[in-house]
């Protein structure tokens, strides 16, 4: 009978199926190696994100997510990048915001520098219904703030243009910062003339 040889061949075939691939034949990496790769991808992604290179960071975090779809670090950073790339979390600069505010009319006559910037501050709040709070920081000599005067008449112009012309008339320069507008003398500008002394009777 030929039953035994057939049975032997069947057993050999079964053992070959369960033996697994030989060494060096493309075996999947172990769990430890996968974890190390994810860790490296996340570290490189964080570095790219901190440098503002969101495209590179997104690619690294997406690769880490494909390997480990439950990795919270990759998920959170991908959400942050999505928001940043849409521009949702990018606040509009103060200068750009104020450039969109149109001043119907401004009329100044012999107004002191201090009074002018107080007026501009209240004007911004009024025109934007309190949405724009402009904080002018005057790094000027007290004499300039109290005694130097300007006159200006404009209408239908952006708020930033009014500030620009005020600065030019007063020989000043302005710098829009995140939370304030810095006002300083122009380099090489001559100081404001001192007020004439008041005559005293009997001298």
- Low-confidence spans: pLDDT under 50, at least 5 residues? 1-30
Q: Please write the string of helix (H) and strand (E) elements.
A: HHHHHEHEHEHEE
The CATH architecture term of the largest domain is: 3-Layer(bab) Sandwich
Number of domains: 2
Give the end-to-end Cα distance, rounded to a whole number of Å.
148 Å
Radius of gyration (CA) equals 36 Å
The CATH class of the largest domain turns out to be Alpha Beta
The number of helical segments is: 8
Q: Kindly report the spatial arrangement of strands forming the biggest sheet.
A: 2-5-4
Structure commentary:
There is one protein chain. With 203 residues, this protein is α+β, with helices and mostly antiparallel strands. It has two domains: 59 residues, no CATH class; 92 residues, Phage tail protein beta-alpha-beta fold. It has eight helices and five strands. A three-stranded mixed beta sheet has the order 2-5-4, covered by helices on one side. Strands 1-3 form a two-stranded antiparallel sheet. Strand 4 and strand 5 form a beta hairpin. Helix 2 packs antiparallel against helix 3 and helix 3 packs antiparallel against helix 4. The longest helix is centred in the N-terminal third of the chain and has 20 residues. It is elongated. The N and C termini lie far apart (148 Å). The N terminus is likely disordered.
Question: Brief overview, please?
Answer:
With 203 residues, this protein is of the alpha+beta class.
């Amino acid at each position: 009978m030929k039953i035994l040889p057939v049975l032997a061949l069947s057993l050999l075939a079964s053992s070959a199926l369960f033996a697994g691939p030989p060494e060096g034949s493309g075996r999947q990496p172990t769990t430890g190696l996968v974890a190390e790769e994810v860790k490296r991808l996340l570290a490189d992604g964080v570095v790219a994100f901190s440098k503002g290179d969101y495209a590179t960071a997104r690619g690294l975090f997406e690769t880490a997510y494909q390997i480990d779809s439950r990795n919270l670090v990759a998920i959170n950073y991908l959400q942050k990048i999505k928001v940043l790339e849409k521009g949702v979390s990018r606040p509009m600069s103060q200068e750009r915001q104020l450039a969109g505010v149109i001043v119907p009319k401004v009329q100044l006559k012999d107004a002191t520098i201090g009074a002018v910037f107080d007026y501009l501050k209240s004007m911004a709040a009024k025109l934007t219904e309190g949405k724009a709070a402009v904080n002018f920081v005057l790094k000027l000599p007290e004499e300039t703030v109290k005694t130097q005067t300007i006159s200006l008449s404009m209408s239908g112009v952006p708020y930033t243009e009014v500030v620009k012309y005020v600065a030019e008339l007063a020989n000043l320069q302005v710098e829009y910062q995140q939370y304030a507008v810095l006002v300083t003398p122009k380099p090489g500008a001559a100081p404001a003339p001192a007020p004439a002394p008041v005559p005293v009777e009997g001298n």
